[in-house]
Design a protein that fits this description.
This protein has 309 residues and is α+β, with helices and mostly antiparallel strands. It contains 10 helices and 18 strands. The radius of gyration is 19 Å and the shape is elongated.
Length: 309
């Protein structure tokens, strides 16, 4: 009787992730028992992820990223280019992509998902050529990403995010931006412009209540209130993705957006600052296959300011 063919897995581990110091031996045993021969590479900086995938893609049938959302997004373009399916072992703080895809937070259970071999093709967003799975933003979230102490983030997790967010809000200011979609430009005064590709971001917030990571479009929102502290009243709507019902929140849906600001402003993608405005955003439908527990996906008309193109 012929033995089943074993597959070669390239496992990329980020030891700086919040759970990066945990033992990976139990999950390695599960992967090996599931018919995978695993090669382990450790990276210290996010650009190394893509280089490792490109360098070793001829010796792998799939790639596994052990890290947070920033680590996974850093692997996206190389995964697109190589055509390798990607597995996720969620070792970060928020792990919003894992939440979107139903990947369990338990490391061995996440390895079990990969061993089962069922994949789901998902969209990838890009901004100025940099990939993101969850959301890219200009304004508050970028300020938060720049001010968040890595030690605080690793030690306190989501509480660290909350403490840093309060500090950012005390000194935040609005800015003017030009939003262009399908040739039409709108000038806004805003505290934040966020463009989502997936469903969850920011530790469980929802980009837009109907958003899915394989719907072939991007969802934008812009915070245009006069008093930033009104956000406290809006928090529940951000958790459910219904924030577009507030008149202070502009929303739009399209496959491409351009954002310009008077001066260059940093762009945060999945927790990492990767580029600056002017920024061109684009969706790449079903560009990467990710191992998931299920191939299935997790009335916008009534909400104001929501436009389709």
């Amino acid at each position: 009787m012929n033995q089943p063919t074993r597959k070669r897995a390239l496992l990329l581990r980020n030891p700086k992730a919040r759970r990066g110091s945990e033992s990976i031996e139990p999950l390695l045993q599960r992967l090996e028992a599931g018919g995978l021969d695993v090669t382990i590479e450790t990276f210290e900086a996010l650009p190394e992820i893509a280089r490792d995938i490109v360098r070793l893609r001829d010796r792998a049938d799939l790639v596994i990223v052990c890290g947070g959302d920033g680590s996974v997004s850093s692997a996206a373009l190389a995964a697109m280019e190589s055509g390798l399916p990607m597995g996720i072992i969620p070792m970060g703080t928020a792990n919003d992509l894992a939440l979107t895809l139903g990947i369990p937070s338990d490391l061995v259970a996440a390895a079990e998902v990969i061993a089962r071999g069922e994949t789901r093709p998902v969209d990838v967003g890009t901004v100025n050529g940099h990939a993101f799975f969850n959301v890219a933003s200009i304004g508050l979230s970028s300020d938060l990403a720049q001010s968040l102490d890595p030690v605080l983030k690793k030690r306190f997790g989501r509480l660290g995010y909350a403490l840093a967010a309060m500090k950012v809000m005390t000194r935040a200011g609005h800015f003017k931006a030009r939003i262009t979609e399908k040739g039409q430009t709108t000038e806004v005064e805003t505290y934040q412009v966020a463009i989502g590709n997936g469903r969850h971001y920011g530790g469980g917030n929802v980009v837009e209540e109907s958003a899915e990571i394989d719907d072939g479009h991007l969802d934008l929102y812009s915070l245009e209130m006069t008093n930033l502290w009104k956000l406290a009243l809006m928090l529940r709507s951000f958790r459910s993705g219904t924030h577009g019902a507030w008149r202070e929140v502009r929303t739009a849906r399209c496959v491409e957006f351009d954002i310009e600001t008077k001066r260059p402003m940093p762009v945060n993608t999945d927790g990492e600052i990767v580029t600056a405005t002017p920024a061109h955003f684009k969706v790449h439908p079903k560009a990467v296959s990710i191992f998931t527990p299920s191939a299935g996906a997790g009335d916008t008309a009534a909400r104001p300011h929501l436009y389709h193109c």
